Description:
The chain is an alpha/beta fold. The protein has helices spanning 12-23, 45-55, 70-76, 81-90, 109-112, 126-135, 155-162, 200-207, 267-282, 298-310; strands spanning 6-9, 28-31, 36-41, 64-66, 95-100, 117-121, 139-140, 168-171, 182-185, 191-194, 212-213, 236-237, 248-251, 259-260, 288-290. β2 and β3 form a beta hairpin. The relative contact order is 0.17. The site of threonylcarbamoyladenylate has 25 residues, from β5, β6 and β10.
Amino acid sequence: MNQETALLTADPNGYARAAELLRGGELVAFPTETVYGLGGDATNDMAVARIFEAKGRPRFNPLIVHVDRIETVRDYVEWSHAAEVLASAFWPGPLTLVLPIRPGTGISGLVTAGLPSLAVRVPANPVARELLKAFGGPVAAPSANPSGRISPTTAAHVEAGLAGRIAAVLDGGACDVGVESTIVGLTDGPILLRPGGLPAEAVEQALGEALARQGEGEPVTAPGQLASHYAPGAMVRLEAERREPGEVLLGFGRVDCDLNLSASGDLTEAAANLFAHLHALDETGKPIAVSPIPERGLGRAINDRLRRAAAPRD
Length: 314
Ligand code: TXA
Ligand code: MG
């Protein structure tokens, strides 16, 4: 994967080009007030798979969806009083809300990593807002750094880490806040999922109640990282060379199967299909056998997800 990475200026031509690339399923890094994000069309499975590929993430962490207007967010998630309070107090701004996802949003299953919730935010950075407006749809964006490296706050940082792996960087200068957004979960009681650019105290003051927190000193774990969270209803058997009686087979490569992640053996295509295919096979109610997936590139993230699905359950 080696492509020319264009450096786009924040002017009408730059926004138009960046939006066109996003529409074509390409990746564009762009500034937000917190850090640079690595953006892709959140409704395009292949674009979202490319985000994980470009970052070299060994697992599918759920991603934050960026939109330009608060009203648009309500199309994607179940809105609540607490959401309204926090959105009107802090959006646009460095706050991400995790809310129950609504059915039929068209958001890729790879964005939520199969979770029933969606992380959303309305960024304040004017360049981010112009890009989102020009694109006109939801943009999934993790921080624009290779996995395990620090988050970028200038276009030069992004280029240093991802040049050759993404279509373009939209240059909007240095980020004001410099640390990631504060993430507040609102699927149950309000909980601080990640401290960030907006002080937790400000959130608590607006809500008029304390935020629950993850245990002191514990690493912040997304629910997606918990083994049990990913399990489909059916039993999952890995490294299956063929389907046993009663099973459905999730194939990879040239095999006779019920659904194929990628008949041509393309790992990006396989990642793009993973969650939708697992859900579809789970609906048959039959045990799911899965073809061997090579442990390289996106195959590592696919296998991580599948191992969680196959892990013994209590
Ligand atoms: O400031 C930011 O938030 C930047 C800019 C680009 O917006 N983005 C960012 O994304 O930091 P990322 O992917 O590096 O971190 C997103 C975090 C992850 O820790 C992920 O686990 C969590 O958000 N997350 C996403 N969806 C979630 C969900 N449905 N439930 C819980 N956590 C979620
Ligand atoms: Mg990050």
